[in-house]
Amino acid sequence: MTRPDHQLRDNLAAVRERIGAACAAAGRHPREVTLVAVTKTWPAADVRRLAELGVADVGENRDQEARAKHAECADLALTWHFVGHLQRNKCGSVAGYADVVHSVDRLELVDALSRAAVAAGRQLTGLVQVSLEDGPAAGRSGAAPAAVGDLAAALEAAPALTLGGVMAVAPLGADPEPAFARLAEVAAEIRAVHPAATVVSAGMTGDLEAAVRHGATHVRIGTALLGHRAASIG
Ligand SMILES: *Cc1c(COP(=O)(O)O)cnc(C)c1O
After folding, report:
1. Which of 15, 52, 77, 202 makes a 20 to 30 Å CA pair with 185?
2. Comparing 19-23, 137-141, 209-213, which segment has the lowest mean pLDDT?
């Protein structure tokens, strides 16, 4: 898909404006919120363009695509965030390029990521992905809130991994406010035990304001920056 040359710059300015306004409304400083540009489905050329425009953090959700894009952008000083569902057999690959893994939602991933990071001679930051779904969907993407403490402790203890904090996706089609309020509680519980685990990764194109209101330190924005993704891949 072709995009006019000024489009990314304009979109980025608009997203920064939204983050700034949300921070002002919440009495927070915009520097407290890191923009992670979610570049999934878009080519490495877009990553490069975003880097030229001052974006320092990019997010991807599929290993194969992320690994290829990272290789194409090896000359850029970017922080790479893996934000998608992670399979155990992909940990070896992900540990080779990701700096922050947002989707640690079960103990077997802690072990697999730690081994892979040790083998690769890298240090990774891991976030515990918290499920904010109620009822039958609970725990489908993310750990149940009651399991987060054990996962955080495991991340903290694992060689070559650093516990960064927590991550969540708001439940589909529901008000994000109570979900992000719950996430803020879980984040505070984790910080009470692990004071350095300050990251709260929450907020996407549709709900970044609610996330910032509830203490997000990282917002993960794709559509508002790059446009709508092809429907089947998103
Ligand atoms: C795709 C994706 C995003 C970005 O979503 P947009 O609505 O396009 O901003 C954020 N977080 C995760 C985990 C994603 O998979």
Report:
1. 15
2. 137-141
Q: What is the mean predicted confidence (pLDDT) over 214-226?
A: 98
Give residue-wise pLDDT tens across range 155-208: 999 999 999 999 999 998 899 999 999 999 999 999 999 999 999 999 999 999
Quote the CA–CA distance of 231 and 213 in Å, as a whole number. 30
Cβ–ligand 1 distance for 101 under 6 Å, the answer: no
Classify 10 as helix, strand or coil: helix
pTM of this structure: 0.96
Q: Three-state SS string across 37-89, please?
A: EECCCCCHHHHHHHHHCCCCEEEECCHHHHHHHHHHCCCCCCEEEECCCCCHH
Atom number, ligand 1, closest to the C-alpha of residue 83: 13
Which residues neighbour 203 within 8 Å (Cβ) at sequence distance 6 or greater? Answer: 180, 209, 210, 211, 212, 216, 219, 220, 221
- Tell whether ligand 1 has an atom less than 6 A from the beta carbon of residue 171: no
Ligand 1: centre distance to CA 220 (Å): 6
Going from the Cα of 219 to the center of ligand 1, the distance in angstroms, rounded, reads 9
Give buried/exposed letters for 32-44 (b at 16+ CB in 10 A, else e): ebbbbbbbbbbeb
Q: Kindly list the structural domains of the chain, giving each domain's residue range(s) and its CATH number in brackets, ordered by start.
A: 5-225 (3.20.20.10)
Which DSSP symbol is given to 196? T
